[in-house]
Amino acid sequence: MPGVLIWSLVFLVSLIFLVKSSDWFIDAAEDIGLSFGIPSFIIGLTIVALGTSIPELAGSLVAVKKGSSEIVVSNVVGSNITNVFLVLGVVFLVSSRRVLNLKFNLGDVLLLSFSAGIITYGCFNDQVFSFNEALICVLGIFAYIGMQLRNYFNTKEDDATDKPPFKFKSVLILMVSIVLIALSAEYNIESIIKLSEILGIGKEIISLSAVALGTSLPELFVSLSAAKKGSIEVAFGNLVGSNILNVFAVMGIPGLIGRLAIPDVILGHGLFLMLIATAALVLVLIFRKFQKWQGIVLLMFYGYFFYVLISHNLTAVSG
Fold this sequence. Notes:
Helix content is 82%, strand content 1%. The protein is an all-alpha fold. The chain has a two-stranded antiparallel ribbon with strand order 1-2.
């Protein structure tokens, strides 16, 4: 089937470009921010933290424009599940340490729990994520940033650094990366729609599995590197922030543009597994301890997640 091969190649290439161009955007924006004397913490909080959700956000905006809004919630739920069950599971297995040097932060626990709660309520309320629910998510972005700023100023350290020289190259890279993000997101969503039609696989299934895995691979590599260096706090912090902002930004911003449809697989199993993943993160935040067997359990949940997706698609096809 040449059509399948062509659109599979388009999907793979566009996903790679989407992730890489997002990295270029983050690096260029960070360089520009530093050259203007913006504190590195503020840059990390805004550009870098929000930047981890750029691939999902770009794809979701295009999906709404193309009338395939069910891809949006699938992107968010699939990414959050993959971040915990796969990424955190692998980190637990490879890390030599078993204790996180983290101060208990009630704000992180509350926002993480609230983000899971608002998406669950929005999906089950009327099976459509509405404007009002999306607006709450966007306000959640400001709440998250405000909480991080408060923590920063309460424990502020000298962040003074010499301003690097302004580079026009960074501006050029920023502009090019924005164009590449837009184009790659367009082709990525189009390939999902075409593959769904050719193979008879739901668009939400592709988004929950292949897209979620592809956009989580950079976080997996970064987290693995941090874990091997003994900096598991960095890996864990990235996952917590990513899961919070995935809901607030990737559901919130597209939801202001149009109502987001909720696929059956999300209502049946997706949200349930995402809530388990959220609970796992909350427990680690509270107790700050883990064992290798917990990593195995998380990976088993990830295997079950794929089993659910395959079973759902076979049922849909036979039905």
